[in-house]
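May I ask you to comment on the folded chain given beneath this request?
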Amino acid sequence: MEKFEVTPEEAEKKLGKGLCKSYLTIVDERGVAEIFEKCRARGCAEWSLMHRLRSSELIKQGWVEGKTLIMRSRIGTGTVDLKAGTHGLESVNVMNNNVYTTWYTKEYREILKCLPQARGVIKSIFYPEDEGRVTIVTPRYTKLVVGVDDTGERTETWMCTLRAAFSLATEMKLLLLAHRIFQANMQVPWKTSFNCSSVAVFAVPPWISVSDVINRFTEKLKECVSSQNACAVFFKGIIVPRLIKEFGDIVKMEIVDELEAEKLAKRFGLIVAEITGLRGVIGALAGVGYYDRGVDCTAFSSDRAMEKVRFRCVEKECEEY
């Protein structure tokens, strides 16, 4: 019997409602894929993530945000060790504007039920000769990370960026994956308010030009900024270069010249857009370097508050309630 394809609607009708709500795949030019899977309960996401990290050679990193499990994988084929986990990622392949992710299991049948019916899936491919394998076909999204700084005066530093990001996502039908606030060195003499820049992370579908997104977001920022030094930096990809991450560390501790930031951004091919000036390139680039580092993004350098973050507590210094 040959393999057969089903749509999400057909999968739900045939198999019943599963635990997966949505499924998104992002690919970059460096051979890295990012898979976002939103579950109906956080426990399901955490449980599934740990099994996949144990069993899948392809998956190199993974974490959970809310009810969504996020996995970073190589593109290609890898082994799945079903003695270590109940199911795993066997392959990630890109053809034209679609991504094909193949999952393999023997006993955990739920994944064969829930992934095919998730929102964002184009179709799923089943293999009757091997009932433990399914290929999920999804659009090839591109990740666009935008850092913005110096958008306001003394009392407003990042609200302009957040409003522009929500507006752009609605207007162009993009997915706004994250918004973060980057905390820079508070000793900078020309700082505004708390000296924060902001970061917006978009998933851009293949039918929308990334250049169009960049141009439209720049226009929206120009409509709301009140500073003479607002600047945006755009990074297309998943893994930020190490030197840009390290630049973010420096900006949290020191006072940096904008020409140094501009030179580093251009070295790695990032787009620098002067909204009303160039000085904001410092915080904008630093924010890009921290876009996927969670609560660290908004912490000071050597921040005492981080000692109280749940999983960073030193046992003898943390109280239990």
